[in-house]
Here is the input.
Amino acid sequence: MKIATWNVNSIRARLPRVLAWLEARQPDVVCLQETKVVDELFPREEIEALGYAIECFGQKTYNGVAVLSRSEMTDVVRGFPNDPEDAQRRVLGVCVQGYQILNLYVVNGREVGCDAYERKLILLEDLRQMVCTRYADAERLILTGDFNVTFDDRDIYDPEAWRDRILCSVPERDALGRVMECGLADAFRHFHDEGEHYTWWDFRTRGWQRNRGLRIDHFLMSPAALDSCRSILIDRDERDGEKPSDHAPVIVDVDVASAAQ
DNA sequence: ATGGTCGCGGAGCGA
Here is the structure.
């Protein structure tokens, strides 16, 4: 079963590319972030025509997450348990083929120390709580999405320039580390040791053209989920060409049968 | 280069 994550930076602006990519890559489950659309206006028909069921949790202009799946989705969870207002649509949980999947769009944080940065740390603490309560007994647990956090220097094109800056600072890395303390592992690093594998390149600095990127989109897996994982790849081709998102998709292949025992 | 470009919505915000 192929599971993908992709920050599309507006599902409506990206729809032609997403449809072509679904046909080419044939993922079974797709976690989308920054859909930037209310659920009533989500472009369902074109995606459903390719055989996908859709769960979405969106808002106007900003944020928004959705999951596309060719298999049945159960245990749908929208938002954080301790955020009843759901002002920021950033988390959507589903269960597919025995995998509990949490699709996340973590607050960017803008700049270390500002209000948005504090909100980022709070969200990560909320996430930690959610994972170790609601998902404490999930054998095959996968957290994926745009975490807006790098793990170490290998994830950064110029580590010295980014030292202690947003997406790379110690407090946000520690907060993400606490989310993972229950036994979650960075699946990409399980398969690849070397640096210079990025998932996001800034539009503003023409980062793609200069390969100035960061690795901030992740698959964090429980031991049983990781045991079943055959491979992980960053689909760099999707960052190129006409009207790309600023993020590339990341795709894992998991063996459903092997994980079930 | 403390710049630059996107998307949304129709100015300015968020990334």
